[in-house]
Amino acid sequence: MTHLSVNVNKVATLRNTRPLGIPSVLRAAELCLNAGAHGITVHPRPDQRHIRPADVYELSNLLKTCYPLAEFNIEGNPFHHYVHYARELRPAQCTLVPDEVESRTSDHGFDLTPETMRKLEPIISELKGYGCRVSLFMDPDPDAVGRAKEIGADRIELYTEPYAASFARDDPSAPDAYARTARRAAELGLGVNAGHDLSLVNLSDFLRNVPGVLEVSIGHALIADALEFGLTETTRNYLSACTNR
Fold it and tell me: For 242, phi and psi rounded to 5 degrees?
Protein backbone atom coordinates (compact mmCIF):
# COMPACT_ATOMS: atom_id res chain seq x y z
CA MET A 1 0.00 0.00 0.00
CA THR A 2 1.18 3.50 -0.78
CA HIS A 3 1.43 5.58 2.38
CA LEU A 4 -0.21 8.99 2.68
CA SER A 5 1.66 11.82 4.37
CA VAL A 6 -0.47 14.94 4.75
CA ASN A 7 1.28 18.26 4.20
CA VAL A 8 -0.24 20.77 6.63
CA ASN A 9 1.46 23.89 5.25
CA LYS A 10 -1.79 25.30 3.88
CA VAL A 11 -3.41 25.09 7.31
CA ALA A 12 -0.60 27.27 8.62
CA THR A 13 -1.02 29.68 5.69
CA LEU A 14 -4.61 30.34 6.71
CA ARG A 15 -3.74 30.56 10.38
CA ASN A 16 -1.06 33.15 9.70
CA THR A 17 -3.53 35.61 8.16
CA ARG A 18 -4.79 36.61 11.62
CA PRO A 19 -3.22 36.56 15.10
CA LEU A 20 -5.79 34.16 16.57
CA GLY A 21 -4.06 30.81 16.33
CA ILE A 22 -6.85 29.30 14.26
CA PRO A 23 -7.07 26.98 12.47
CA SER A 24 -4.77 24.91 14.63
CA VAL A 25 -2.02 23.11 12.74
CA LEU A 26 -1.76 20.57 15.56
CA ARG A 27 -5.48 19.86 15.50
CA ALA A 28 -5.42 19.44 11.74
CA ALA A 29 -2.58 16.93 12.07
CA GLU A 30 -4.51 15.04 14.76
CA LEU A 31 -7.61 14.81 12.55
CA CYS A 32 -5.59 13.46 9.63
CA LEU A 33 -3.72 10.93 11.75
CA ASN A 34 -6.88 9.80 13.53
CA ALA A 35 -8.45 9.24 10.10
CA GLY A 36 -5.60 6.93 9.16
CA ALA A 37 -2.91 9.09 7.53
CA HIS A 38 0.50 7.47 7.83
CA GLY A 39 2.41 10.66 8.48
CA ILE A 40 2.63 14.43 8.47
CA THR A 41 4.76 16.57 6.17
CA VAL A 42 5.89 20.14 6.73
CA HIS A 43 8.04 22.43 4.62
CA PRO A 44 9.35 25.26 6.81
CA ARG A 45 10.72 28.12 4.73
CA PRO A 46 13.01 30.93 5.88
CA ASP A 47 10.30 33.58 5.41
CA GLN A 48 7.90 31.60 7.67
CA ARG A 49 4.98 32.34 5.37
CA HIS A 50 3.24 29.15 6.47
CA ILE A 51 4.88 26.61 8.79
CA ARG A 52 6.84 28.33 11.54
CA PRO A 53 9.67 26.86 13.61
CA ALA A 54 7.38 26.45 16.62
CA ASP A 55 5.02 24.35 14.49
CA VAL A 56 7.83 21.99 13.52
CA TYR A 57 8.78 21.37 17.15
CA GLU A 58 5.18 21.02 18.34
CA LEU A 59 4.29 18.58 15.56
CA SER A 60 7.40 16.53 16.28
CA ASN A 61 6.39 16.27 19.92
CA LEU A 62 2.81 15.36 18.98
CA LEU A 63 3.90 12.50 16.75
CA LYS A 64 6.48 11.16 19.19
CA THR A 65 4.13 11.20 22.19
CA CYS A 66 0.74 10.38 20.66
CA TYR A 67 1.38 8.77 17.27
CA PRO A 68 4.65 6.86 17.56
CA LEU A 69 3.97 4.79 14.44
CA ALA A 70 3.35 7.83 12.23
CA GLU A 71 6.22 9.37 10.31
CA PHE A 72 7.31 12.99 10.41
CA ASN A 73 8.66 14.26 7.10
CA ILE A 74 10.44 17.62 7.10
CA GLU A 75 10.99 19.07 3.64
CA GLY A 76 13.31 21.93 2.80
CA ASN A 77 16.29 23.29 1.00
CA PRO A 78 19.28 21.79 2.82
CA PHE A 79 21.23 25.03 2.33
CA HIS A 80 18.57 27.29 3.92
CA HIS A 81 18.39 26.88 7.72
CA TYR A 82 17.27 23.28 7.49
CA VAL A 83 19.73 20.77 8.91
CA HIS A 84 19.23 21.87 12.52
CA TYR A 85 15.68 20.46 12.45
CA ALA A 86 17.05 17.00 11.69
CA ARG A 87 19.80 17.35 14.28
CA GLU A 88 17.37 18.32 17.05
CA LEU A 89 14.21 16.41 16.14
CA ARG A 90 15.38 13.30 14.25
CA PRO A 91 12.36 13.04 11.90
CA ALA A 92 11.71 9.77 10.11
CA GLN A 93 12.38 11.41 6.76
CA CYS A 94 14.18 14.44 5.42
CA THR A 95 13.07 15.44 1.93
CA LEU A 96 15.58 17.75 0.31
CA VAL A 97 14.15 20.27 -2.14
CA PRO A 98 16.02 22.79 -4.32
CA ASP A 99 13.60 25.71 -3.91
CA GLU A 100 14.90 29.25 -3.63
CA VAL A 101 13.98 31.53 -0.73
CA GLU A 102 11.67 33.59 -2.94
CA SER A 103 9.97 30.59 -4.60
CA ARG A 104 6.20 30.48 -4.11
CA THR A 105 6.30 26.69 -4.13
CA SER A 106 8.61 23.87 -5.14
CA ASP A 107 8.65 23.85 -8.93
CA HIS A 108 11.51 21.58 -10.02
CA GLY A 109 13.72 18.79 -8.82
CA PHE A 110 17.45 18.75 -8.23
CA ASP A 111 19.75 19.05 -11.21
CA LEU A 112 22.46 16.75 -9.94
CA THR A 113 25.46 18.39 -11.51
CA PRO A 114 28.88 17.39 -10.16
CA GLU A 115 28.96 20.61 -8.11
CA THR A 116 25.50 20.01 -6.61
CA MET A 117 26.40 16.41 -5.84
CA ARG A 118 29.57 17.54 -4.10
CA LYS A 119 27.56 19.89 -1.87
CA LEU A 120 24.75 17.47 -1.15
CA GLU A 121 26.75 14.35 -0.34
CA PRO A 122 28.09 15.44 3.08
CA ILE A 123 24.69 16.82 4.07
CA ILE A 124 22.99 13.55 3.18
CA SER A 125 25.60 11.68 5.17
CA GLU A 126 25.01 13.96 8.17
CA LEU A 127 21.24 13.55 8.01
CA LYS A 128 21.53 9.78 7.81
CA GLY A 129 23.83 9.93 10.80
CA TYR A 130 20.88 11.35 12.76
CA GLY A 131 18.83 8.29 11.80
CA CYS A 132 16.79 10.09 9.13
CA ARG A 133 15.80 8.58 5.81
CA VAL A 134 16.81 10.99 3.05
CA SER A 135 14.73 11.61 -0.05
CA LEU A 136 15.72 13.89 -2.94
CA PHE A 137 13.08 15.87 -4.84
CA MET A 138 13.64 14.90 -8.47
CA ASP A 139 12.16 15.46 -11.91
CA PRO A 140 11.14 12.28 -13.77
CA ASP A 141 14.44 11.41 -15.42
CA PRO A 142 15.65 7.80 -15.36
CA ASP A 143 19.19 8.88 -16.22
CA ALA A 144 19.47 11.06 -13.10
CA VAL A 145 18.43 8.39 -10.62
CA GLY A 146 21.86 6.82 -10.47
CA ARG A 147 23.39 10.11 -9.35
CA ALA A 148 20.92 10.28 -6.45
CA LYS A 149 21.99 6.79 -5.43
CA GLU A 150 25.66 7.71 -5.80
CA ILE A 151 25.49 10.49 -3.20
CA GLY A 152 23.66 8.35 -0.65
CA ALA A 153 19.96 9.13 -1.01
CA ASP A 154 17.57 6.48 0.28
CA ARG A 155 14.64 7.59 -1.85
CA ILE A 156 13.64 10.05 -4.51
CA GLU A 157 10.43 12.07 -4.46
CA LEU A 158 9.08 12.51 -7.97
CA TYR A 159 7.93 16.06 -8.73
CA THR A 160 4.46 15.42 -10.14
CA GLU A 161 3.19 18.84 -11.28
CA PRO A 162 4.04 18.07 -14.93
CA TYR A 163 2.15 14.78 -14.62
CA ALA A 164 -0.90 16.58 -13.17
CA ALA A 165 -0.86 19.15 -15.97
CA SER A 166 -0.58 16.44 -18.64
CA PHE A 167 -3.35 14.41 -17.00
CA ALA A 168 -5.62 17.45 -17.05
CA ARG A 169 -5.05 17.70 -20.82
CA ASP A 170 -6.04 14.02 -21.21
CA ASP A 171 -2.54 13.17 -22.35
CA PRO A 172 -2.30 9.37 -22.22
CA SER A 173 1.49 9.54 -21.94
CA ALA A 174 1.35 11.55 -18.69
CA PRO A 175 2.74 8.77 -16.43
CA ASP A 176 5.33 7.38 -18.86
CA ALA A 177 8.48 9.22 -17.71
CA TYR A 178 7.48 8.67 -14.10
CA ALA A 179 7.05 4.94 -14.64
CA ARG A 180 10.44 4.67 -16.31
CA THR A 181 12.07 6.63 -13.50
CA ALA A 182 10.39 4.52 -10.82
CA ARG A 183 11.51 1.30 -12.49
CA ARG A 184 15.08 2.57 -12.71
CA ALA A 185 14.99 3.57 -9.04
CA ALA A 186 13.82 0.08 -8.11
CA GLU A 187 16.68 -1.45 -10.09
CA LEU A 188 19.13 0.64 -8.05
CA GLY A 189 17.50 -0.07 -4.69
CA LEU A 190 16.06 3.42 -4.23
CA GLY A 191 12.60 3.95 -2.77
CA VAL A 192 10.15 6.18 -4.62
CA ASN A 193 7.90 8.87 -3.17
CA ALA A 194 5.80 11.37 -5.11
CA GLY A 195 4.21 14.74 -4.56
CA HIS A 196 2.97 18.06 -5.94
CA ASP A 197 -0.46 18.68 -7.46
CA LEU A 198 -1.63 15.14 -6.84
CA SER A 199 -5.34 15.11 -6.10
CA LEU A 200 -8.38 12.85 -5.89
CA VAL A 201 -8.80 13.42 -9.64
CA ASN A 202 -5.42 12.03 -10.68
CA LEU A 203 -3.91 10.12 -7.76
CA SER A 204 -5.31 6.67 -8.50
CA ASP A 205 -4.27 6.92 -12.14
CA PHE A 206 -0.75 7.91 -11.15
CA LEU A 207 -0.35 5.04 -8.70
CA ARG A 208 -1.89 2.56 -11.13
CA ASN A 209 0.68 3.44 -13.78
CA VAL A 210 3.81 4.19 -11.75
CA PRO A 211 5.12 1.07 -10.00
CA GLY A 212 6.28 0.83 -6.41
CA VAL A 213 5.42 4.28 -5.05
CA LEU A 214 5.96 4.01 -1.31
CA GLU A 215 4.55 7.37 -0.22
CA VAL A 216 2.68 10.37 -1.54
CA SER A 217 2.88 13.73 0.19
CA ILE A 218 -0.24 15.80 -0.49
CA GLY A 219 -1.26 19.17 0.91
CA HIS A 220 -2.81 21.79 -1.34
CA ALA A 221 -5.49 19.65 -2.99
CA LEU A 222 -6.24 17.73 0.19
CA ILE A 223 -6.81 20.87 2.24
CA ALA A 224 -8.92 22.35 -0.57
CA ASP A 225 -11.07 19.20 -0.65
CA ALA A 226 -11.47 19.43 3.11
CA LEU A 227 -13.49 22.63 2.62
CA GLU A 228 -16.11 20.46 0.94
CA PHE A 229 -15.84 17.12 2.69
CA GLY A 230 -14.21 17.93 6.03
CA LEU A 231 -10.67 16.98 6.93
CA THR A 232 -11.45 13.55 8.37
CA GLU A 233 -13.52 12.37 5.38
CA THR A 234 -11.07 13.89 2.92
CA THR A 235 -8.16 12.02 4.48
CA ARG A 236 -10.13 8.80 4.17
CA ASN A 237 -10.91 9.58 0.53
CA TYR A 238 -7.21 10.02 -0.23
CA LEU A 239 -6.36 6.80 1.61
CA SER A 240 -8.96 5.04 -0.52
CA ALA A 241 -7.36 6.47 -3.67
CA CYS A 242 -4.03 5.08 -2.50
CA THR A 243 -5.45 1.57 -2.31
CA ASN A 244 -8.18 1.40 -4.98
CA ARG A 245 -6.35 1.71 -8.26
Answer: -75, -20
Could you tell me which CATH number the domain at 3-243 has?
Answer: 3.20.20.70
Q: How far apart are the first and last CA of the chain?
A: 11
Q: Which of 43, 50, 157, 215 is catalytic?
A: 43
Q: How far is Cα 162 from Cα 109, in angstroms, rounded to an integer?
A: 11
pTM, 2 dp: 0.95
Q: Is 220 a catalytic residue?
A: no
Distances (CA, A) of 52 to 86, 152, 184: 15, 29, 36
Question: Has 43 been annotated as catalytic?
Answer: yes
* Domain locations in the chain as residue ranges: 3-243
What confidence tier does 245 reach under pLDDT thresholds 50, 70, 90? low
Q: Average per-residue pLDDT in the chain?
A: 95
Residues forming beta bridges with residue 79, ordered by sequence position:
none
pLDDT at 103 over 80: no
